[in-house]
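We emphasize that the prediction below concerns an isolated chain of 201 residues; any contacts that depend on oligomerization or on bound cofactors are therefore not represented. The input was used exactly as deposited, without trimming of termini.
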Amino acid sequence: MFKQSAFLATTGLLLCSIPGAPSLAKPQIMQETITVGDVKAAQEGWCNAVTDLSKTYAESGFEASKRLASEVVDSAYGYQFGPVSFKPTWAYGEKTFRPTKEGAVSYFVGGNPKYRDPGFTIASPGDGNYPNLQNRSQWVKCTPEIVTIQVFGNIATAMGWVRFEAADGYQSKVDKTFGYMRDDSGNLRIIVHHSSTPYKW
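Result of the prediction step, given as a C-alpha cell string:
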C-alpha cells in the first residue's frame, strides 16, 4: 500500500512539472448571464432597425431594403440555431407564424409571393386595404416601453409595448414579447417574438 501511494504521489509531481499540464492552463471564461442593460440595448437596436429599413426603402428602394432586412434578421434573430417562435402583428391568412428566416424577411419588407406581406418595416399600414395599400408613410420613430424583464442566465424575456410614428403623424402601439438567448460569441439572439395589437372594446 505504501509503495503504491508513493508511486501515485511521484507520478502526480512529474505530471505537474510537465509544461502545458492542465494545472498550468489558464481557463477561458465566458460570462453567459444576460443583464437588464443587454435587454434594453437589444430592444433599442430592434427599433433602430425598423426606422433604418423604412428609410432605406424610401431612399433606395425595395431591393436595398430587402438586403438590409436579411442582414438584420441574421444579426438579431436566432434562425441559425433552428426555428424561431415569431408571430408577427400583420400576419395575413394561414401564414400566421414565421419560424424561418425567409418568412421573417418577407414580413419585414414584403415582396415574397409565398406570403401575403405588405412589408411591415417599410412604411405605415396606410388605409389597410391589402394588397393595394394606399397612403403609406415612412416610419420615423420607434420607441420600446418595457413592462417586465426576466433573466435566467443566458436566457431572458421582455414584455411591453412598442410605439411607432410615421412621417405623416400616424401612430401605432403594439404589444410585444421577446425571448432572447446569448450565443457563443456573446450576442443576444431573438428566439421568441410575439406581437399583437392591444384589444379594444
